[in-house]
Specification:
Blueprint: E1 4-12, H1 16-27, E2 33-35, E3 49-50, E4 60-61, H2 62-75, E5 79-81, E6 85-89, E7 95-99, E8 104-112, E9 116-118, H3 124-128, E10 134-135, H4 138-141, E11 149-153, H5 157-166, E12 172-176, H6 186-194, E13 198-201, E14 204-213, E15 216-225, E16 231-235, E17 238-241, E18 245-247, E19 278-280, H7 292-312
Parallel strand pairs: 1-2, 1-8, 2-5, 8-19, 10-17, 11-12, 11-17, 12-13
Antiparallel strand pairs: 3-4, 6-7, 7-8, 9-18, 14-15, 15-16
Helix pairs in contact: 1-2, 1-7, 5-6
């Protein structure tokens, strides 16, 4: 039998933005509820070494950091529910969100913190070998390529960071980029160009992932010169796709204003959206910075914006948390 939950603040998503929003909302006495989604903790749960989160002089582990945020959120009064929101109704007040389980979540305000996920090229061979030599997460799968040669596709911060990380495991890392220069930050580029394990091939795209079927696995890659269209094949044991991310906003299409890439558009410098009472924080609305610390900061902002919204309601529905 489906369960009906009621809350003043419903937080959809459980990464740094969601957990931080919950901590601030709970400390404000709003008794928030988090629907955690399929991957509680977000992208940091598949990130090993984290060395740029303020407050930690030594390297920390992403899953550990998310565990700490979750425990803090629960300790101050957040209710966590393991479910995936599959439908939202922002046309009625209070809002009604439905979980994949069939459970219903009724909320006076909603904070969307569903994050983003890796983009794929969309070629057939990429899908065929996904999990068998094709990956979008070096920190997850780099260990499996110790002493082997790998290919990284992309030219932004993600690609350069992935390539640098893979040098800890692979014997050689080849980076291909469709343009003549990277978009990545200069400090990252400098580190990449200094690394003797990394080779860069410019104006090149991935045409096909090559591999065997018995056992299924990557043995090489066909790459195409973007200027001459000449195709050549290189021997690699793994292919890492690092071309960016897409926001997890499919369930909100047609329900809230987004940009052309599917990121939720905030109003001014706040976390408010075009739907009064609905707020957005973290990578689901941020395609520029995409850092754990900025996501956490926006989670704080969303909680404060939600608190102000609730306080200003003259005829707010009386919804007791259950």
């Amino acid at each position: 039998m489906a369960t009906e939950y009621k809350t003043q603040v419903l937080i959809i998503g459980s990464g740094p933005a969601g957990y931080t929003a919950a901590i601030y909302a709970a400390r404000a006495g709003l008794e928030p509820m988090i629907v955690q989604g399929l991957a509680p903790g977000g992208q940091l749960t598949i990130t090993t070494d984290v060395e740029n989160y303020p407050g930690f002089a030594d390297v920390i582990q992403g899953p550990w950091l998310m565990d700490q945020m979750r425990e803090q959120a629960e300790k101050v009064g957040t209710k966590l529910v393991f479910d995936l929101i599959s439908d939202v109704n922002f046309d009625q007040r209070p809002f009604v969100c439905t979980g994949d389980s069939g459970d219903v979540f009724i909320a006076v305000s909603v904070i969307i913190a569903t994050g983003a996920e890796a983009k794929w090229l969309g070629i057939e061979s990429e899908q065929k070998f996904q999990g068998f030599g094709v990956s979008a997460c070096a920190t997850c799968d780099g260990f499996f390529f110790r002493g082997k040669e790998v290919l990284v596709v992309g030219g932004g911060n993600t690609a350069v960071e992935e390539a640098l990380y893979l040098t800890n495991h692979a014997s050689k890392v080849t980076v291909i980029h469709r343009r003549e220069e990277f978009r990545a930050e200069k400090i990252l580029q400098d580190r990449l160009f200094r690394n003797p394990k990394i080779k860069v091939i410019w104006n090149t795209v991935l045409e096909e992932v090559v591999g065997g079927t018995d056992p299924l696995g990557v043995t090489g890659a066909k790459i195409r010169d973007a200027k001459t269209n000449a195709v050549s094949e290189i021997n690699v044991d793994g292919v890492f796709i690092a071309i960016g991310h897409r926001p997890n906003t499919d369930v909100f299409k047609g329900k809230i204003t987004m940009d052309g890439e599917g990121y939720i558009e905030p109003i001014d410098a706040t976390t408010r959206t075009n739907v009064t009472g609905v707020f957005a924080a973290g990578d689901v609305r941020d395609k520029v910075y995409r850092q754990a610390v900025t996501a956490a900061g926006q989670g704080c902002m969303a909680a404060l914006d939600a608190e102000k919204y609730l306080a200003a309601l003259e005829d707010a529905p009386t919804v007791a948390a259950q």
